[in-house]
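User: I've been trying to design a sequence by hand for this structure and keep getting stuck. Would you show me what you'd pick, starting by listing the structure so we're on the same page?

Assistant: Good idea, let's start from the same input. This is the structure you sent:
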């Protein structure tokens, strides 16, 4: 991969295996958040309100951290300067829209189709979008060449998608419930690239994450009010504390995404998250299966193929050729 456009030395200081482990953690946190937000949406009988609650709680955490931590305050200062001097373009400030859409999708479909099938559509969108964004150089690492291993890794990820869809019980998975996660995956790959570039501008992944949560919270609160006005008030708020952890998990994985995308590129970050998502999804759906789960045996096969996709992309093929 090429060096960062800003000349940042970050990528040289983080071992590849550690960056990939961080990507897998992002995926696991995404899957856990999906289950939490999906269950909250089910209990409230309103996925939009659940999404607004999740994002709002994350925003409160980020505001506190940004004001308390010196790095957060410096990042806010650079953000204000960049906006005033117009060195930060408007499109770097709207990544939260993709996050808002993802969380809303979780609240609408996960409790019905399960974490695994949500992850399937999400993976497909991330893979296709990540490959395209790397090719045009949209991420903070600049243009990443479309090589045979990268295309093969993306294809294997899509094979994992087909395997999982093929195992879904007939008639239990409406098409729109897979289209929404696919669109969310496309948006999240773009969000990760955008956040990485904003992080370069403000020098703080915390500030980049805060910007995401501000935009996402505004959109989701507006959507929740409109939805309540149309369908009526949701069910009473549940008292289980774990149902309100989705926002905190979102803070962690968006922060990590903004930090790691320059090390890995958009596609490899997406493929790393796939592994974490699928492993977490298999565990959760085994313990707490949904009606549309494709089954434990098929899920293990899907995880194996997805892991192979990451290994194909991440392997040092150039080193192997030189040593042969």
């Amino acid at each position: 991969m090429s060096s960062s456009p800003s000349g940042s030395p970050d990528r040289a200081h983080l071992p590849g295996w550690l960056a990939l482990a961080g990507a897998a953690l992002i995926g696991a946190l995404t899957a856990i958040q999906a289950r939490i937000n999906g269950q909250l949406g089910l209990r409230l009988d309103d996925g939009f309100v659940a999404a607004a609650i999740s994002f709002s709680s994350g925003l409160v955490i980020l505001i506190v951290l940004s004001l308390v931590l010196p790095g957060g305050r410096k990042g806010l200062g650079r953000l204000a300067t960049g906006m005033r001097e117009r060195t930060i373009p408007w499109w770097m400030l709207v990544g939260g829209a993709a996050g808002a859409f993802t969380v809303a999708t979780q609240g609408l479909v996960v409790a019905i189709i399960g974490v695994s099938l949500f992850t399937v559509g999400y993976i497909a969108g991330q893979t296709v979008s990540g490959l395209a964004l790397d090719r045009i150089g949209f991420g903070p690492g600049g243009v990443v060449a479309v090589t045979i291993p990268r295309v093969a890794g993306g294809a294997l990820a899509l094979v994992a998608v087909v395997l999982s869809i093929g195992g879904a019980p007939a008639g239990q998975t409406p098409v729109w419930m897979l289209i929404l996660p696919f669109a969310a995956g496309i948006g999240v790959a773009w969000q990760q690239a955008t956040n990485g570039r904003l992080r370069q501008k403000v020098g703080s992944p915390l500030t980049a994450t805060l910007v995401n949560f501000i935009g996402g919270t505004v959109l989701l609160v507006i959507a929740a009010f409109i939805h309540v006005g149309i369908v009526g008030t949701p069910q009473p708020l549940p008292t289980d504390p774990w149902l309100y952890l989705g926002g905190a998990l979102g803070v962690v994985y968006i922060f990590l995404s903004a930090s790691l995308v320059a090390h890995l590129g958009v596609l490899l970050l997406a493929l790393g998250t796939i592994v974490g998502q699928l492993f977490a999804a298999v565990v959760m759906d085994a313990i707490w299966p949904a009606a549309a789960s494709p089954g434990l045996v098929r899920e293990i096969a899907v995880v194996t193929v997805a892991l192979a996709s990451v290994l194909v992309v991440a392997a040092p093929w150039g080193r192997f050729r030189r040593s042969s």
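That's my pick for every position. To get oriented when you compare it with your attempt: Residues 14 and 173 are 41 Å apart (CA to CA). Residues 1-11 have pLDDT under 50 and may be disordered.
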